[in-house]
């Protein structure tokens, strides 16, 4: 497979971009405030560059491998578990990750518009309805249970002022 | 020695060992008035109803997360961290440490009754625990687990208590350059200790250090790396980052697993519990060896309980005169990993409280909890907040003992917890985490930050970067920079104190050798391998 087609390549590139941007930004600061970020940023960028290069030449990472004493035993443990392992294809894995991301993003969106209480009911209820194909009674109980738990923890115990939603008069803070 | 005399000798050895331990402990604590005062302060808070309820709640949560496969105490502490924000620091620590203490026993129950580990360190308990349960010895296996967990934790705690006075004395010799090197050593040693690749560990730690520098710097009275953002002015909050990276990223993995497993626990009467508990003392060599291994691994930063449990199991088989019985339901195979992982938990507190170097991921999160309560994690903790150290010790000890004792009567209930489908766990954790992110500061963007941190953490896990290295860099970053500039200011811009003060020089050599040692070792190994290949004519 071409190195550019690997997800790990793009992730390594993204990771490398972080220390490099810090170094570039730090250069514009006066001598003292830039010192520590540069001391950390330059070697970190170098390390990132080696990791990225190892996507093409994996041997580059060999000197940095750490011996894992328990790895052999752990490998043996995999076959011992009573859990039934189901092998997923990459496409299935990606689909499930996207689903999880989707649920989290939906929760944040619903909170943004109508606040926490409706979102705390809706998301868990819909989640088990869609994934666990639960009955309507279980679905409603799950939604109500989670909403009550959240209210008890945050409103009652922490006494936090929870977000009520843009539709109910909240104003977005300045970013 | 005749075989029948081995248990007798073992019992005597154990009692002598316990006696010497208790005497040392009492002398250590009583000889210092500061220790006694701190212990009194931490113990008196136990009489407070809120603290008592906090420990009870932490223990209950620990039991649930310990028994649930896929949800570890790390996730639970990450989720609960924000909730303790408004609590008294001592109470918060009791609560959080009770979660980890209770999970130690609870995680072993599904390993024995279902052949599914509650947490990764419980995996080797399946090897012999489950065969024992199938042979009708579930009660004995659970009894051995409970006793092994209790004595293992006591050993770890004992080492910690004995070491505290010495560590305090050493820390009095430290000043800014020594503290600087200590914090650098913390980040680097975690990068070194991770079981994937050292460079990835160092890289993740470096990024953590850099990210911690975002925002207003009181040293220079200027904002760095924040642009004109109002949100970034104070830098990133700890809770959205840590909870997102540890808890939310774990939800992606659970979602990938789907429903989870369709499990059925081994049923039958729970008999032989006391026999199992006594078994721990019938095999003193196993117990002492595992306790020593667990303690040493606990002191090493970042290695964690999984390695401790597996290594203890492996060495017990190697040392056994009847290795063929392991895997068929040998009680020694249950005792060794349990003692190892319990001793690791107690011992991991030592580098955490003494030097601010977390012995495990859970300990890194406890450092985060201290930060949330305005206490600077690091070497000053054991000097200035000894009562909190005692709160950690008492909380861990109490939760372990309570869970083990009560857990023997509720093992089948714990096994039932393990059969809960992932589909009921994932939405609750998502909602709790994101809600907690908002509740800390009442800032909507913290939820978005946590969402991004969750994705980032999932990426790190997937591609073999250790999250703990990033987290530690993030927690210790600001302090490291402070000590760096403080040293320079005292020396009027000179770098000399970093290398000329004796302790700083030793620390510096330690840091350099930490980086170079594995590299040189790997290069030599590769050279030997190629020479061997040449000799063989390949």
Short description:
With 175 residues, chain A is an all-alpha fold.
User: Poorly predicted ranges of chain B (pLDDT <50, ≥5 residues)?
Assistant: 1-6
Q: Could you tell me the mean pLDDT of chain A?
A: 85
| H and E string of chain A | HHHHHH
Please state the CA-atom Rg of chain A, rounded to the nearest Å. 24 Å
What's the assembly state of these chains?
heterodimer
Question: How would you describe the shape of chain A?
Answer: flat
SS class of chain B = mainly alpha
Tell me the total number of β-strands of chain A.
0
Largest interface, C-beta within 8 A: A-B, 86 and 92 residues
Number of domains of chain B: 1
- Terminal-residue CA separation of chain B: 51 Å
% residues in beta strands of chain B: under 5%
Encode the helix/strand succession of chain B as letters.
HHHHHHHHHHEEHHHHHHHHHHHHHH
- In terms of DSSP E residues, the strand content of chain A is under 5%
Global morphology of chain B: globular
Could you tell me the number of beta strands of chain B?
2
The largest sheet of chain A is: none
**How many separate domains make up the residues of chain A?**
2
Integer average pLDDT of chain B: 82
Helix content of chain A: 55-70%
Helix content of chain B: over 70%
List the helices and strands and how they pair.
The complex is a heterodimer of chains A (175) and B (538).
Chain A: H1 7-27, H2 31-53, H3 71-78, H4 90-114, H5 116-131, H6 136-157
Helix pairs in contact in A: 1-2, 4-5, 5-6
Chain B: H1 5-30, H2 33-44, H3 49-67, H4 73-80, H5 89-106, H6 108-113, H7 123-134, H8 138-171, H9 176-193, H10 198-211, E1 215-217, E2 222-224, H11 238-257, H12 273-282, H13 284-299, H14 305-319, H15 332-355, H16 361-372, H17 380-384, H18 386-407, H19 411-417, H20 422-441, H21 444-462, H22 467-490, H23 497-500, H24 502-536
Antiparallel strand pairs in B: 1-2
């Amino acid at each position: 497979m071409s190195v550019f087609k690997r997800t790990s390549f793009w992730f390594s590139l993204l990771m490398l971009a972080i220390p490099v941007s810090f170094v570039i930004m730090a250069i514009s600061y006066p001598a003292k405030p830039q010192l520590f970020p540069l001391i950390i940023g330059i070697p970190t960028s170098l390390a990132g560059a080696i990791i990225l290069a190892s996507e093409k030449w994996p041997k580059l990472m060999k000197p940095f491998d750490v011996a894992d004493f328990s790895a052999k035993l752990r490998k043996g443990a995999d076959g011992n578990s009573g859990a039934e392992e189901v092998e997923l294809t990459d496409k299935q894995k990606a689909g499930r990750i996207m689903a999880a991301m989707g649920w989290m993003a939906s929760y944040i969106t619903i909170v943004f518009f109508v606040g926490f209480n409706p979102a705390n009911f809706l998301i868990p209820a819909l989640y088990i309805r869609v994934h666990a194909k639960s009955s309507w009674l279980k679905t409603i109980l799950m939604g109500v249970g989670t909403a009550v738990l959240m209210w008890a923890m945050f409103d009652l115990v922490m006494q936090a002022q929870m977000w009520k939603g843009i539709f109910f008069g909240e104003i977005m803070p300045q970013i | 020695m005749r075989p029948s005399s081995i248990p007798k000798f073992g019992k005597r050895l154990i009692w002598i060992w316990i006696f010497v331990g208790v005497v040392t402990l009492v002398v250590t604590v009583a000889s210092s008035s500061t220790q006694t005062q701190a212990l009194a302060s931490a113990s008196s808070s136990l009489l407070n109803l809120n603290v008592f309820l906090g420990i009870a709640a932490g223990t209950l949560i620990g039991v649930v997360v310990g028994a649930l496969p896929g949800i570890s105490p790390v996730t639970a502490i990450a989720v609960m961290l924000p909730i303790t924000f408004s609590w008294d620091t001592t109470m918060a620590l009791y609560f959080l440490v009770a979660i980890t203490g209770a999970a130690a026993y609870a995680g072993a129950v599904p390993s024995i009754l279902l052949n599914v580990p509650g947490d990764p360190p419980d995996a080797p308990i399946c090897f012999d625990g489950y065969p024992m349960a199938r042979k009708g010895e579930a009660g004995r296996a659970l009894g051995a687990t409970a006793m092994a967990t209790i004595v293992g934790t006591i050993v770890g705690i004992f080492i910690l208590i004995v070491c505290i006075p010495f560590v305090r004395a050493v820390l009095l010799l430290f000043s800014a350059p020594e503290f600087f090197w200590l914090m650098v050593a913390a980040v680097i040693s975690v990068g070194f200790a991770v079981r994937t690749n050292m460079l990835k560990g160092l890289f993740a730690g470096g990024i953590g250090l850099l990210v911690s520098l975002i925002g207003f710097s009181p040293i220079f009275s200027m904002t760095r790396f924040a642009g004109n953002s109002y949100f970034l002015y104070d830098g990133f909050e700890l809770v959205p980052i840590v909870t997102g990276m540890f808890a939310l990223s774990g939800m992606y993995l659970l979602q990938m697993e789907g429903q989870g497993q369709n499990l059925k626990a081994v049923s039958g009467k729970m008999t032989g519990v006391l026999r199992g508990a006594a078994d721990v003392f019938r095999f003193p060599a196993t117990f002492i060896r595992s306790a020593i291994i667990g303690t040493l691994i606990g002191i090493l930063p970042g290695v964690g309980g999984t390695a401790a449990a597996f290594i203890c199991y492996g060495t017990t088989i190697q040392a056994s005169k009847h290795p063929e019985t392991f895997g068929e339901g040998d009680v020694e195979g249950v005792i060794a990993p349990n003692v190892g992982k319990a001793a690791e938990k107690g011992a991991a507190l030592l580098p955490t409280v003494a030097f601010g170097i977390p012995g495990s991921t859970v300990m890194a999160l406890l450092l985060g909890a201290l930060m949330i309560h305005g206490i600077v994690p690091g070497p000053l903790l054991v000097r200035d907040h000894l009562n909190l150290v005692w709160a950690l010790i008492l909380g861990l000890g109490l939760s372990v003992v309570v869970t083990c004792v009560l857990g023997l009567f509720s093992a089948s209930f714990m096994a039932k917890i393990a059969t809960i489908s992932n589909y009921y766990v994932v939405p609750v954790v998502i909602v709790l985490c994101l809600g907690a992110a908002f509740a800390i500061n009442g800032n909507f963007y913290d939820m978005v930050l946590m969402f991004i941190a969750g994705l980032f953490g999932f990426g790190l896990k997937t591609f073999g970067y250790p999250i703990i290295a990033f987290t530690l860099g993030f927690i210790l970053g600001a302090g490291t920079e402070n000590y760096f500039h403080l040293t320079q200011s005292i020396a009027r811009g000179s770098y000399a104190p970093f290398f000329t003060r004796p302790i700083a020089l030793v620390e510096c050599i330690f840091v350099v050798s930490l980086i170079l040692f594995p590299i040189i070792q790997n290069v030599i190994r590769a050279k030997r391998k190629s020479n061997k290949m040449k000799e063989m004519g390949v």
